[in-house]
Amino acid sequence: MKNLILVCAAILSFAAPAPTISAHAFDRTIEDVREDAEGGDAQSQYDLGVYYQEGQILPRSYFEAAKWYQRAADQGYAEAYNNLGVLYQNGLGVRRDAAKAAENYRLAAEAGNDMGQANLGGMYLGGMGIEQDYALALEWSQKAAEQGQPLALHNLGYMHQEGLGIPKDTQAAFGYYKQAAEAGYAQSQFNLAVLFHYGTGVDQSFEEAAVWYEKAAEKGVPAAKNNLGVLYRNGTGVPADHVKAFELYDEAANLGYALAWQNVAAAYLNGTGVDKDLGAAFRAYTEGAKLGLAEAQYRLGEMYSLGNGVRQDKRRAATWYKKAAAQNHASAKNDLAALYLNGDGIDQDIETAVKLFEEAAALDHVSAFYNLGIVWSNGYGVTANQHQARSWFLQAARAGHIAAQYEVGLKEAEAGNTDAAIEWYTKASENGHGNATYNLGVMYHFGSGVEQDLPKARAYYEKGLQAGHALSINNLGHMYMQGQGVEKDIGKAKELFLSIADSGNTQALYNLGHISETGLDGNQDFASALKWYEKAARLGNKDSQFRAAVFFYNGAGTEKNFVRALYWFKQAALQGHLEGIYNTGHMYDAGLGVPVDNQEAVKWFLKAAEQNYLLALVNLGVYYQNGSGVEQDHTKAFDYTKRAADLGHPQAMHNLGYFYESGVGTPVNFQGAKTWYEQAASTGNANSMLRLGWVYESDETATDHWIAAMKWYLLASQQGAEVPPERVNTVKQALTGPDIDLAYGMAEAYWVENFKAQACAGAACSFAPKLNLLKPIAQQGNAS
Prior knowledge:
784 residues
């Protein structure tokens, strides 16, 4: 049972009043007793005091009792000294005065009164109204015990049990308690029960414990009622009876016993022996908390924090946590620290949070170990230190903290310690930690640090499926969708994705969109795909945001809507989606869904360029070359264009060739121009072929530059470029017929090797540039 409290400490007794009446008092009327008392008879004065104290024969009046006890005491009446001491000790009819109580007990004790001796021993034992002195406590208690005084026997038992003034001796303690208990002394009956309960100084016996708890409970000892309730709850020493247990807790609680309120609250909280009632649990915790019980104060704070049985109120939770923490309650310190850390219900104070976590950890609070791991891992109030974090997580993990076991697994995985990671993930998984199970599945699925093992991955994902772990279910669905480690089954994959779609798993929503978009299930449906993508997009899935943007851009499954396309491109971009970043720039560049804004376009292209996104590099080269949206900067234009060219972009290769040819952002370099134009030309770029013709035509240093120029003009024409006739004529004039034939053959061979298969696509076609290659015939004159 949650929060069950069992009292295990012995009770120390002081000052039992036990007033007695002389035998001859019963032979006289009250008038006779009063007359004799007023006449100075000490016995009658004492008896009259008893009448007033007990309130049975005369109306109760502690004031009158004290007056008559004092008169009897003034005449040396021992019992009167004792009872007067009781009144002073408890403030009944007189001002509370422990010193006067002790003095009266002394007078009674020295006169041989066993009760006075017992009470004087108790005062020395507790240091009440007199300097604490275990030796004198022992001496006076022994004198009283020799007369069979139960209180003295009890206190001797307590002294032997705790080793106060004498060596600790639990067997001797048991003997003294047993004598007092058999004499009917309730507190000894309780303490004897505790010894039987725990097997202290005697063989453990729940049955005997129950017997003595019952006797003490019948005499109204609240702790005995509480502990007897625990035995009934657990069925130890008595038949299990939850209803009886609750009744006993309730009786003890209503006698003002704080620990019993805790058990009453727990019974209501769990519905054990009584109908579950969170409101009643809250009220019971409140009673215990008011009586200063730290555990009740903590539980009350917990209920306020969780809104369990009461309206959630973090501020009040903090108030009760503080009260319990002030009593060194470890869980209260830990939970209060969490409120300070998050500024939840109280002003955020990370320094205090860390201090409280450390105090709770010093009390071996396992969750505090874990929380200190979080503190050091994230650098909350301290400089982040992963070694320290791992140390705290490890301490918690070894104590069985499941989340800590998972965190240790993470730390080991990050450090590349695969075997250790698997060990801790496995422990956490066996304890029901969903993410640990999922991570094991991922490791075996993708061969992360281990040899890929798809059956193992599937087994872990299926374990996650049984626990309803969305990430595991999604990955299992992905295995069915791809046919990885299982027979490909799109229907099963779709079923798995649908099972977690309503829970907001965005990856499953994305996968459902992908199935509808691609028609993997035999039913391509763009409208349905867009529905799934938008649902995931609204939940923040950046891949789905990008796909939704593409659908609106292309009008797939919906009408074209550039405004919506821009919105989703930008949402994806804000989460770092690279294509989303570029396309946001593209929308501003092209004025789609928004007025043209070159500066905004450049901003997004620059973000994409940071990750070497090819089209962004190309566009930035153009923007810096033309000074569009940025200050013209040929050097930057050259740099961005070269980065794009190095990554293989045909137009960037062409542009870079032009930069080398024209000296834009770099010195003129015909060889560099040729190199990049040729790379662009190899991709079929007709303009690059045309520029190569011109570069070779102009470069008189190159061997056979006219033949090379003709070759590239022919290829440019074949690829659809308009070659200026004057360029062709200039080259023809520089070539012989065989040279032209050679250039033609070179061009045709290049075309066949690089472009014919693609150009003809299996049909008959040939190299047929639209250039006039005939040389003009020289005019012949007639002799005159």
